[in-house]
Amino acid sequence: MNPSIAANPPMDPVSPLIAAAADHAAALLDQADALIVAAGAGMGVDSGLPDFRGNEGFWRAYPALAQAQLDFASVASPAAFRATPELAWGFYGHRLALYRRTVPHVGFAQLLRWGARMHHGLSVFTSNVDGQFQIAGYPPDAVHECHGSIHHLQCLHGCSDAIWRADEILPDVDEATCRLRNAPPRCPRCGALARPNILMFNDWDWVEARTAAQSARQHRWLQSVKRPVVVELGAGTAIPSVRHFSQRILHHHGGRLIRINPREWEVPTRSDVGLPMGAAQGLALVEQALSGAL
Predict the structure, then answer these.
(1) Do 254 and 36 contact (CB within 8 A), yes or no?
(2) Is it the case that residue 56 has pLDDT exceeding 90?
(3) Above 70 in pLDDT, residue 3?
(4) What's phi and psi for 77, nearest 5 deg?
(5) What does the alpha-carbon distance between residue 195 and residue 127 come to, in Å, rounded to a whole number?
(6) Mode of pairing for the β-strands spanning 164-165 and 173-174
(7) CA nearest 246: which of 261, 237, 257?
(8) Region of 48 on the Ramachandran plot (φ > 0 left; ψ -120 to 50 alpha; else beta)
């Protein structure tokens, strides 16, 4: 096993109905010529990343913001960087450091193996900005990050459309106040404050060139596939970017769907599969079915 991939705990026995669904998922994977991974926030929860679903989850992860009664939308916005840059970069700097040290769960490696066995390989569509797929060893040109990436920066004042990596940023965050203690990153061209290259709330200045290039690569790849299977993980209806992508694949490319979600697992047809569980558990179950262990 790749030492940078976290292992899953042993699985509990499953019901015959769930085992049958896992067998169905394994059959869809065996018949497919391409794997499309569609991942929402739930994909990272099993790696230990916080769930920002609702104020309760957000404030549990950031108690200093709970005390200030600041919700996710008010902090995750360009306006926050203009008004209180030390707070905005405290929040994003903490997340950047967290994502850098987080070990992806073993489900990432399982998906990579499944794709490697298929004629056209795999492609990823994700609303996550954490870079976990690249950390887990996925080829960067196989990943489409529809909301951008925290590992890249742009100028807050929009002096140009330049996007650059955040590798040199080492945020020092006071977790008690969620405020940045060291100097925030600056635009190398004009010296103005830099911000993450992420699509935020009420964001009219996001530079989407990097994401647009990813989208174009994925679109070209999709033209070659004939029997894709979409494995959708931890993607709900509250922010439906990933759901909409899955639906486009089903409608325009004749794909089948394996939806793994502990709360919203229903699927559109009986030819598709819904597994009511978290991403790591669902992928481990399908892996067992592929190996004939169920």
Answers:
(1) no
(2) no
(3) no
(4) -150, 150
(5) 18
(6) unpaired
(7) 257
(8) left
* Alpha carbon separation from 134 to 12, 123, 131, 149 (Å, rounded): 30, 12, 6, 11
Strands (E), the chain: 34-39, 122-126, 143-145, 148-155, 164-165, 173-174, 179-180, 194-198, 228-233, 256-260, 273-275
pLDDT at 222 over 90: yes
Q: How far apart are CA 147 and CA 76, in angstroms?
A: 12
Q: Enter the tokens of residue 123.
A: 């492609």
Which residues are within 8 A (CB) of 193 and not within 5 positions of it... i.e. 6 or more apart? 81, 85, 155, 156, 157, 184, 185, 186, 187
DSSP reduced 3-state for 128? coil
Contact 285, 262 (CB under 8 A): no
List % helix, strand, coil for the chain (3-state, nearest 5). 40, 15, 45
CA atoms of 36 and 115, how far apart (whole Å): 8
- Copy the structure tokens of residue 187: 């635009």
CA distance 28 to 118: 12
* Most confidently predicted of 6-10, 52-56, 146-150: 146-150
